[in-house]
Design goal:
Structural class: alpha/beta
Helix content: 40-55%
Oligomer: single chain
Order of helices and strands: HEHEHEHEHEHEHEHEHH
Number of helices: 10
Number of strands: 8
Bound molecules: pyridoxal-5'-phosphate
Strand order of the largest sheet: 7-6-5-4-3-2-1-8
Length: 248
Amino acid sequence: MLRETEIEKRLQSIHGRMNAACLAAGRLTSDVRLLLATKTVLPEQIAIAAQLGEALIGENKVQELKSKWDALQHLSIERHFIGHLQSNKVKEVLKYVSCIQTVDSLNIADALQKRLEYEDRCIDMMVQLNTSSEESKFGLQPSEALKFVEQLSKYPRLNIVGLMTIGLFDADPDKVRPCFERLRKAKEEIIKYGLLNAATFRHLSMGMSNDLEIAIEEGATIIRVGTAIFGQRQYPDSYYWNENTPTA
Ligand SMILES: *Cc1c(COP(=O)(O)O)cnc(C)c1O
């Protein structure tokens, strides 16, 4: 378990990096939000971050949302879903989050629309794109984004607020940057075609512990950081990003 002072120090360091990257890119620091990726992180540690002023977290598994957030109901912290969603988990996930960042099929959109109609409400969502062409990652190809967003116009309960991607893991920025560029360009194209307007379709969720500076340069409005704040995880990320990987 990390102590409060350690979490505080790491959060300060991340905010320092975010501010420096915004300054370098000529962007307002208020235009980029930090989302804490809290998979495997204990509720006590999340509560410390919330008390230090963090207001946005993302979880990858419905089961983890359920077990943590029944205990942390008192925290006023916005929660997004950032994992792969299965249609049989839609009803559960809607109890816990205000935004689903990972919609990548009409099958999931159907399930969400149906449940939201029943509950008579709407939800914010993003379309996940696979910008690195790695098979292990979910998401649509960037070339499919325009058509998919067009199809989503038939789902009035879904507010499309942006695009999300997991970039390539590579120490070489020249390989990482094109992934983020692809996401930005896909967003620009959707706006250019008049499918959505820039005021509501405004987010690019991209960039993590290792590549947040590049993501901010390329226009990220939400960066998702886990390891740099809460430390190494016990399970490899493939466990969270690819259902076919056996659990450790
Ligand atoms: C775990 C995770 C992150 C954070 O990754 P770190 O390298 O730990 O910062 C970001 N996005 C998604 C979808 C994740 O699953």
